[in-house]
């Protein structure tokens, strides 16, 4: 897992800040005001990875935004997501997958309207920690051996992809092979610099958090995810047997249920 450290659909597009927005249904919107759900994808994925979850949330009356995560650096990605969050009137539940957990941990500090954090197979770093360091903290991760040859960038960093032939087994083993092949083609790269960037003071120390992950995650070992959930004093942790790293795609109902529990805590 440590070998990578040195050299790891939703509806309409709205401007440059939003990947997508799914509005609440009119019938649901007529009831009590609900917090907006902002979904942040992780590395080797895009906002479409939330499609199943977003559909359930929207059906249940939530306004859902799939925020663009550029996967360039923790700071710049968090700044981008924070601008989205700050543009939302009212309360927000901020949800992150994988590296998106590092992003939401930083982004939620900017404004005052984030009332709950949900980590979906996601990093929850403390100050000074890196995604690369946390993923190698416990055995079981195999991402380093699944990466393709790095793509050099002008600033000296590298873009990282998962080899398409290894994507299904590594990233999405509990999804149909045909679906995983399409995800492999559309995967978005992350810079090695982002994975090795030290995180700022985390929002989970002051904002309630919820965690969900799969026992069969090969990107972030389940033991590492359990450690982060416990350290964050998670209000609730859901562990799904056999679920891969893309637990939100393979188990959207369970993930949406936990997000709605977090949203239900917002007063």
Q: Explain this structure to me?
A:
By secondary structure, the protein is an alpha/beta fold. It has a single domain, classed as 3-Layer(aba) Sandwich (Rossmann fold), CATH 3.40.50. 35% of the residues lie in helices and 17% in strands. The chain has twelve helices and ten strands. The protein has a seven-stranded mixed sheet with strand order 1-3-2-4-5-9-10, with helices on both faces. Helix 2 crosses helix 12, helix 3 crosses helix 4 and helix 7 crosses helix 8. The longest helix is centred in the N-terminal third of the chain and has 13 residues. It is globular and about 50 Å long. The N and C termini lie far apart (41 Å). The N terminus is likely disordered. GO terms for molecular function: hydrolase activity. Pfam families: Abhydrolase_6.
In short:
This protein is α/β, with parallel strands linked by helices and 267 residues long.
| Count of the separate structural domains | 1
Structural class: alpha/beta
Report the CATH architecture: 3-Layer(aba) Sandwich
Helix-strand string: EHEHEHEHEHHEEHHEHEHEHH
CATH topology: Rossmann fold
CATH class: Alpha Beta
> What's the CATH superfamily, by name?
Alpha/Beta hydrolase fold, catalytic domain
N-C termini distance = 41 Å
Helicity, as a percent range: 25-40%
Largest sheet: 7 strands, mixed
């Amino acid at each position: 897992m440590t070998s990578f450290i040195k050299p790891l659909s939703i509806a309409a597009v709205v401007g440059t800040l939003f990947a997508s927005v799914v509005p609440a249904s009119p019938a649901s919107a007529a009831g009590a005001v609900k917090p907006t759900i902002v979904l942040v994808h992780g590395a080797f994925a895009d906002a479409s990875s939330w499609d199943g979850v977003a559909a359930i949330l929207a059906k249940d009356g939530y306004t859902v935004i799939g925020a663009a995560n550029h996967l360039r650096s923790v700071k710049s990605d968090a700044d981008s997501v924070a601008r989205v969050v700050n543009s939302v009137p009212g309360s927000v539940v901020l949800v992150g997958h994988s590296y998106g957990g590092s992003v939401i941990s930083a982004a939620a500090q900017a404004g005052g309207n984030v009332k709950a954090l949900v980590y979906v197979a996601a990093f929850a770093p403390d100050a000074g920690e890196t995604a690369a360091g946390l993923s190698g903290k416990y055995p079981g991760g195999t991402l380093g051996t699944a990466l393709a040859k790095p793509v050099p960038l002008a600033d000296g960093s590298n873009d990282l992809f998962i080899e398409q032939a290894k994507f299904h087994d590594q990233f999405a083993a509990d999804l149909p092979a045909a679906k995983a092949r399409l995800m492999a083609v559309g995967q978005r790269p992350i810079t090695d610099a982002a994975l090795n960037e030290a995180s700022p003071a985390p929002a989970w120390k002051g904002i309630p958090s919820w965690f969900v992950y799969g026992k069969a995650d090969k990107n972030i070992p389940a033991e590492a995810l359990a450690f982060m959930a416990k350290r964050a004093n998670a209000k609730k942790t859901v562990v799904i047997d056999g679920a891969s790293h893309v637990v939100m795609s393979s188990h959207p109902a369970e993930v949406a249920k936990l997000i709605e529990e977090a949203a239900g805590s917002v007063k």
